[in-house]
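Here comes my example:
=====
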Amino acid sequence: MALQAPEEAQQKADEQVFNPFYSPSIKDDGDDTYKFSDYKAGHLPIFPKLTWETLTEIQVTERGLLADPSKQSLFSAAKKIRHLTPAIGTEILGIDLRQLSDSQKDELALLIAERGVVFFRDQEIDIHQQLDLARHFGPLHKHATTPIPKNGLEEVHVVYNDASRRPDTEAFSKLELWHTDVSYEIQPPGATSLRLLTGPEVGGDTLWSSGYALYSSLSPGFQTYLEGLTALHSAVAQAEGSRAAGLHVRRQEIETVHPVVRVHPATGWKSVYVNPGFTRRIIGVPKAESDNILSFLFRQIGENPDFQVRFKWEVNSVAIWDNRIVTHSATFDFWPATRHALRATPHGEKPISVTEYERETGKQAKDRQLVIWEQQGIKVERKVNGASKKRGYND
């Protein structure tokens, strides 16, 4: 086998590609006439280095607990409410997010907690109004590695790709792109919003997968086993991706242990809380066991369509999803078109396990699917033991 010359090896190193999930956009097409150029990603030659303190636990009020369960105020203001799949995703037509009352915002928080993600079209809400809406749900998160927009709004997360940045599939697999936003934080996000400013005519869709539905799909024995586990979520790869791109990391990266199954405080429903982007290992079990469990859960997240909803963006579309109970992934199928969106990201509570939830609230944490069936008057017995039966597929 021929050896590489030193200069050839260096060229290969210089051309090394990084997973776009961990490597921020540090350049763009240079078009300063672009309508939203102030909200492009800025980089170090434009901004001074910023260093932020390590995050500590903060008080968060769960707005969904304050909502009218019927959501009468929110629903009566809408022209149409459409559930997109049985498990996840609702589209609301005819509501202006700028005009919501506090009670309607609380009802929206509960709806998002129940449905995972809620979509709106034709929203003229600007970024300052978007941030104000997000603050209703919790204190805003500031990202430690993604670029700050050129207008200096530190609480805005910029999502931006154009012809100058072509995703390289040698750097990542599609499964790796599934993630829950910054799940490594002590208090990861809750109801997170994204508004599209510019997008391709075709492509650039986002998919979400329900942690509720994943939990409900598991056998009772496996559900109980997972409820007793915790997993490590890590910011290290994301921080290293920024440093490799020559950027300053604004907050020291951390690793945090969270329950594998968490309970949403507004619904009391159990959700699997791991993701390929940031979950590294299950604590206290052999590595082979951890690897196999996470591989199974990750593949269910990314490959099981029963848990998923896919959204086709239009300019001024807004999605608001609950990062505590869903994972999501963008599709990088639109190059060389431009895709530009702005995210507002409020903190949620510190993830709480089934045992902690039941001890602290005196309530029983529940399986969402069993609750839905019960509401429909259907009683389903879950068998803990017994041989499985063969079933035909008649579609």
